[in-house]
Amino acid sequence: MEVAADRGASPLDRRDEGAMRDDREEKPVGILTDDMRRVVGEQKLGYVATVCPDGTPNLSPKGTVAVWDDDRLVFADIASPRTVANLRRNSAVEVNVVDPIARRGYRFKGTATVHDGGEIHDEVVVWYRRNGTASPIRAVVLIEVTRAQPLVSPAYDLGATEAEVRQRWERHYLGTLGWGRRGNCKTGTESAMDRQEGPMSEENVAAIRRLFEAVERRDLEGVLAAYAPDIVIREAETLPYGGTYRGLEGGERHAYSYEATWAPLQEPGARSLDAEVLDAGEHVVVLWRQRGQTPDGTRSLDLPAVSVYRMRDGRIVEARMFQQDTAAIAQFLADAGPPEATGEA
Ligand SMILES: Cc1cc2nc3c(=O)[nH]c(=O)nc-3n(C[C@H](O)[C@H](O)[C@H](O)COP(=O)(O)O)c2cc1C
């Protein structure tokens, strides 16, 4: 059965973002962008929604979803009786294709044509055979895409970069395959990392980002807001602000002591910590730089550091700072002269 595609708008009008025209050839480009082609081609799985006769939705996965041409998607009916019956009655269709690692994808709305014989059917079946689909194909469904929109996880709203999102979900899926579990975790025992996967660990990462931003702008309130009331902060004993600080009062002393040491040695524009925030479930690990420059500009310091934060309910309960070279820092501070004030642990 042939169902006419919605020709109400040209592909130019229908492309959701960034309609373009190839000026040299004077013809509109298709609705499916290169990135849409990439995501559909990589994922090889789309969720296809159709409308049942009683108006309720019908949703089912299709591993054969592919880009057919600039404006059309295709899938093979191997075992999809309801989807196909619905489309024969009502050609309205929506397909979601999402990269579960990057937590991004696309939603495609359109009108479908079911081909269970004829030239187009045969051409598409040959294409599937060439691409390795061995299952018997009852019909092929071509979807004229009338609207294509990006889908983006709210994880990105919290400021996560794509690299961070990928890292979290790669680990999650590797975990489901039995990879990447902690060495000391007994089989079948849920680790803290597993328990915190998802929204909670996103919240942890966002809290640590806010902490680093607060440190960079010397915002004491912002720093303290990241701390749980029973926080414990540990710095190398050999540093002027070294030792163990407990509770919010300790956190405040630590902040003042750190500030007193470094503020005279960091121009406001040179306070960047270059924080790289790594999600580790119950923990958040940050790779950052300890920088300083003597006021006369003759000596400078730029060393890597790592901080490990243990989180509870989105707040830090333990902060452990690891400097790569505390001796170099101590020497730099000695050369720079005494700080204005020091705190005590
Ligand atoms: C990962 C996955 C991929 C699938 N791919 C297809 C496919 O490409 N074509 C198909 O007809 N059925 C496919 N199926 C099977 C259908 O989704 C399944 O038979 C479903 O019940 C059909 O429901 P429907 O009749 O409402 O379409 C797939 C199932 C899964 C889990």
Low-confidence stretches: 1-27, 181-197, 340-345
Strand order of the largest sheet: 4-3-7-8-9-6-5
Structural class: alpha+beta
Count of β-strands: 15
Shape: elongated
Ligands in the model, by name, code or SMILES, are: flavin mononucleotide
What is the CATH class name of the largest domain?
Alpha Beta
Layout of strands and helices, then pairs:
Elements (H helix, E strand, L loop, with lengths): L10 H4 L6 E2 L4 E2 L5 H10 L2 E6 L5 E6 L3 E2 L4 E6 L3 H9 L2 E8 L4 E12 L2 H13 L8 E14 L9 H15 L15 H4 L3 H18 L3 H6 L1 E9 L7 E4 H16 L13 E5 L2 E11 L6 E13 L2 E9 L2 H11 L9
Parallel strand pairs: 10-15
Antiparallel strand pairs: 1-2, 3-4, 3-7, 5-6, 6-9, 7-8, 8-9, 10-11, 12-13, 13-14, 14-15
Flavin mononucleotide binds next to β4, β6 and α3.
Summed up:
This protein is an alpha+beta fold and 345 residues long. Helix content is 31%, strand content 32%. It has two domains: 11-152, Electron Transport, Fmn-binding Protein, Chain A (Pnp Oxidase, Chain A), CATH 2.30.110; 156-336, Nuclear Transport Factor 2, Chain: A (Roll), CATH 3.10.450.
